[in-house]
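Example record

The entry below shows one chain as it appears in the dataset: sequence first, then structure tokens.
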Amino acid sequence: MIGRILAVVVVLALVAGVAYRIQQKGAEEAGKGGEGRAIAVKTAPVEVRDFPRVIELPGTLEAARQAAVSAQVGGVLLKQHVQEGDRVRAGQTLFTLDARPAEARIAQSRASLEGARAETEEAEKKLTRLAPLMDSGYISRQEYDDAVLVREAARAKAASARAELQAAQLDAGYAAIRAPFAGQVGRIPVRPGDLVQAGAALTTLIADGGLDVRASVAQSDWPALDAARAAGKVPADIFFDGGDKPAARGELNFVDAQLDAASGAVQIKVRLTGAPPGLLSGQSVRLRLRLGVEPGARVVPEAALQHAQNGTYVYVVRDGRAVAQPVTLLRALDGAQAVSGELAAGEPVLIEIPQRLRAGGVVRLEGERPPAREAAK
């Protein structure tokens, strides 16, 4: 009986020892990054090439030429000659206001002008008669000077009446509100019969064709943009929100002369080349200013860049091991990262990191055959 118990104890001890050795071996291999067996990894080569230097900004499209069509005089809106969305030619009548008050002023001013002219003529005749009498001493100098004052007052009255007539004629002309240029009529907030105040906006006229993108450049990006402007023209790409291909192209054509104190940014404007379909004034877009290139940059895929508390790094395959190489991110664009660090052109960097990978662990490139010893295992 005692012998059987001893045999069982010995067997259990042997099983426990084997299990411990297996676990210990697995832990050692995991701790060494798989010293016993290379981990297959997916990589991409480091590129050394010119990398675009860009500034990306949110922007808003607006018509390159637009105008708020307003009433220059007050009055009742008699006729609306166009509808919202109509295309009009330059000089076409858009609205007509009631011109009868201005016409009444014209008639009144003409009558006043005629009376002032008659008074002026009478004063001139009187002076003509008094001049020889003063020379002969029949009248005093004071009488003659009084007649001169009457003539000057009549002339001033005529000038005032003439100015009132011109003002009334202008107001009558303003009753017909015309398009300042060819374009498309926007929203019309008034209707015939409404009393329109002077300066009230009647509609917005947007010229066909040209579109601009307005945006704001942060103060920190201003030196780079200013340097690019000094070197020549600054081209730009315009993207729909969420799009990865340019919807239009353009060129920087306006930079504000001062920094906006409220936003800490500089206002800019890009003029689009042509008028691509699908773009509307007021639409939100993404603007990319192309400032030049970073020559000879080391470029890796975005997925290769790893982040840690002490900085960024990439895993590089060197001598069959995954080496953690510290790098500094310089620029990023369309899934590519320009970095600085000890990377050589063509070196494979990991773009997918296995969970059990450790720095310095043995690896093999995906698609490579494992060594014969590992294959036998």
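Notes for this example: The CA atoms of residues 186 and 331 lie 42 Å apart. The helical segments are 2-31, 100-136, 141-174, 222-231, 372-376.
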